[in-house]
Amino acid sequence: METLGQLTGGVAHDFNNLLQIVMGNLDMLRRHLPDDPPRLRRSADNAFAGAERAATLTQRLLAFARRQPLAPKPVSPNALVAGMSDLLHRTLGEMVTVRTEPADEDWLIEVDDNQLESALLNLSVNARDAMPAGGTLTLAIRNLSLAEPIRGQSEVPAGDHVVIAVSDTGEGMAPDVVARVFEPFFTTKEVGKGTGLGLSMVYGFVKQSGGHIHIASMEGAGTEVRIYLPRLLISRMAAADAAEPKGDRRGGDETILVCEDDEGVRANSVESLRELGYDVLEAGDAREALAVLQGRCGKIDLLFTDVVLPGGMTGSDLAVQARVSCPDLRVLFTTGYARDAIVHHGRLDAGVQLLPKPFAFDDLAVKVREMLDA
Q: 351 is in which domain, residue-wise?
C-alpha cells in the first residue's frame, strides 16, 4: 500500500499538471468554437471526456492508496442521500427503481461530502450493472450503537456508527469474487467496461475517513455494501455554520495573483481568470510572487498558488510569508498532488482551501467567487 501510494503520488503530480493543460485548453476551445461545423465541437467534447476519464483514473488510484486530500465537515447522511435522488435517477436509467430509506434520527458524520457522494454513485452504478434486466436499488441509512466490536470481514469498533447500505436485487457474486472485490484492477466486467478501481476507491476513501466497509452477496440473491462511519457529536447549529458557502461564477473587478511554475498551467489559469473579468498578475515561483506582493497589500485580493514550487519554498511557505505583511490576503491552493505541505493524516489542514488539478473553468470560477465573497 505504501509503495503504491508513493508511485501514484509521484505520477499524479506531473500527470495532473499535463491534464490541466489539456483540459484547460480544450475547455477554452469548447467555449469559443462556432456551432458550425458540429464535428469540431464533437471532437473537442470527446477529447475532453477522455481527459476527464484519465483524471478520474488517477483520482481513484490516490483514493485506493489513501493519498487523496479530504476536506471533511459535518454532514447529514439523510440530507446527502436525499440530495442524490435526482442524480441517481438520471444516471441509472428507467429500468432501475431507486429507493431511499432515511434513518429515524438524523445522526451527523464528519466526512468529505463530495467524495462520499462519489463513492455512493460508484456503488450505485455497480449495482445497476449487476441488474441488466432492471431491478431495485436501495440506499438505506441506519444508526447503530455497538457495545462490542463487530468481528469478521470488517472490524467495526464499539461505539455509535452511521451505516449507509447500498443494496440491489441483481445477480449477486460467488464467495471467491466477494473476497477479491476491493483489490485494485480486479473486475468481473468485460474489457473496456471498467477499470477495476471503483470499489477499491470506495474502500480507500472509507478507510481514510476512519470508517469500515463490508460486502455481503449471494449468487442470484443480490448484493449489499455497508459503509460504517463514526457518529459525530456536534450541534445542528455548529454543523450549519461549518457548511461551505455556495458561490456562483460571476467575475468582478478584484485582483488575483497567480503563482505557478508550469508555464502551460499558468497561462491557462491567467487566461481563464481574465476571461472571468478579474485583473490578474502572475509569478513563476514563491520569491517572484513575494516581490509582486511587495507594496501591493490591500490591492491584491486573492493569491492562487500551486503547492509544489521550485526554489525551496512551497506554496504553503509562500502563504505564510505573504500573510506576515498582508494578513488579510485570501489564499487558494491548487496541486496535482501534495501529501505533506497542506495535507496531514489524509486531511486538509484547518482553514486551507484547495482546488485540485485538473480543474475545469466552471470549477475555478465558482471556487474563486466563493472565496472572494466569503
A: 255-373
